[in-house]
Specification:
The chain is α+β, with helices and mostly antiparallel strands and 402 residues long. Helix content is 24%, strand content 19%. The chain has ten helices and 13 strands. A nine-stranded mixed β-barrel has the order 1-2-3-4-5-6-9-10-11.
């Protein structure tokens, strides 16, 4: 077993190495453009049997800003998921149609609860705990549940819309407010057509809170005390989350991963995250605003796995609260040989003329320092790939996260 433990201990380092290697291997594709030959191939792609194509779609439009009446139609993105659009240039199937019948429905994405805000949801769960004699107070003489150890967060990856692989892009579009629909279609276009993916790990941008439930993490180290539950993970950067037991929100400014408080009801943990910095969810997925808040309910099964029910509230970005389920599969206890591998992001790909390209040490390039609080990916797209497009005149703060 010890050999197995050592293998797990190096998984984080291996993942980081694979990530760097993959970005370098895929970098030449970033130089590719829609040539006349590729344009002919895109235009000739037939839709699935029985599907009537739209007059214009993401891959044939000259200005996606003018197509808002089509954005929520699956045919506009040729029935593709965000993940398939993200993979198109990497795997050489630009403009191909997906399966129009695939993917979660709007109902499956929507929270089943009547609560309009995270505060209302949290207070209702607290009231329930009090009605049952709680919340449960643990101390050093009466410690909380022994959840300490290592977990893999991808037990439900194929069922989680946050990975972008089991939901139509158009269905996610229907869950967004008009402003965030525009942001989403902008991302889909420049990833799928302009071939200008701006992956946060490739550029060493902050991961952002939604990456916690998506591409940003795999293995998690959990430590539990009577005062907090700490979760440590990351991909190119470390992500540290702390659920502060029995406390209130006090943060005055937004944090990249928010501020999380919680309480125990027996061996169920309820957590409320607020004060989140708005950002992008992940690869070719929508953005979220500084209004994002999350309610997480953790339970543990007999095998030691943690089940999470997550409800996401963001009145600026979402037309309704969203639902997400996650499973953290138990791997090893705290006495194992597993070690958390600390992650330092060293940027190997750089924006050159709007596309990420590798630059060897000593190479001199022109580089503009990004404003991390002003959608740096969008600024690149607008500068290099939207000449002549009729981007709507926005309200003064339309492109701010607040």
């Amino acid at each position: 077993m010890r050999h197995t433990h050592h293998t797990l201990a190096t998984r984080g380092a291996l993942s980081a190495a694979v990530l760097v290697l993959a970005t370098l291997l895929f970098a030449p594709a970033a130089l590719a453009q829609v040539t006349p030959e590729l344009r002919k191939s895109i235009d000739a792609q037939p839709p699935p049997p029985g599907v009537e194509p739209l007059p214009v779609d993401l891959f044939t439009t000259k200005d996606f800003y003018l197509d808002s009446k089509y954005w929520q139609d699956p045919r506009y993105t040729r029935c593709n998921s965000p993940r398939r659009i993200d993979d198109m240039w990497v795997r050489n199937f630009v403009g191909e149609w997906g399966r129009c019948e695939d993917g979660l429905s709007v109902q499956q994405l929507t929270s089943p609860y009547p609560y309009k805000t995270a505060a209302e949801h949290y207070n209702a769960l607290m009231a329930k705990a009090k009605a049952n004699g709680g919340p449960t107070i643990y101390d050093r003489e009466h410690p909380p549940p022994a959840w300490d150890g290592y977990y893999n967060s991808r037990g439900l990856q194929q069922q989680q819309w946050s990975f972008g692989n089991n939901v139509q892009a158009a269905t996610l579009m229907q869950m967004l407010t008009p402003e965030y629909q525009q942001r989403f279609v902008q991302a889909l276009y420049h990833v799928g057509v302009s071939n200008s993916a701006q992956w946060v790990s490739s550029t060493c941008y902050p991961e952002g809170l939604m990456r916690w439930w998506a591409q940003g993490i795999r293995d998690i180290q959990i430590s539990v005390t009577p005062y907090q539950l700490q979760l440590l993970s990351g991909t190119a950067l470390n992500i540290l989350r702390q659920i502060l037991i029995g406390q209130q929100h006090v943060a005055l400014i937004a944090q990249w991963y928010g501020e999380t408080v919680g309480f125990w009801e027996g061996e169920t943990l309820v957590a409320w995250t607020a004060h989140v910095q708005g950002w992008t969810m992940s690869h070719a997925l929508p953005e979220f605003s500084n209004e994002l808040e999350a309610i997480e309910v953790y339970t543990r099964d007999e095998q030691g796995n943690l089940h999470l029910e997550i409800t996401l509230y963001d009145p600026l970005a979402f037309v309704a609260p969203l639902r997400l389920d996650a499973l953290y599969t138990y791997l090893e206890g705290p006495q194992s040989d597993t070690r958390y591998q600390w992650k330092e992001c060293q940027q190997a790909l750089w924006n050159v003329n709007g596309r990420l390209q590798p630059a060897a040490p000593g190479t001199v390039i022109e580089y503009r320092i990004p404003d991390w609080y002003d959608r740096p990916w969008a600024r690149i797209w607008e500068e290099y790939f939207e000449q002549g497009m009729q981007r709507p005149e926005a309200d003064e703060d339309i492109f701010d996260f607040e």
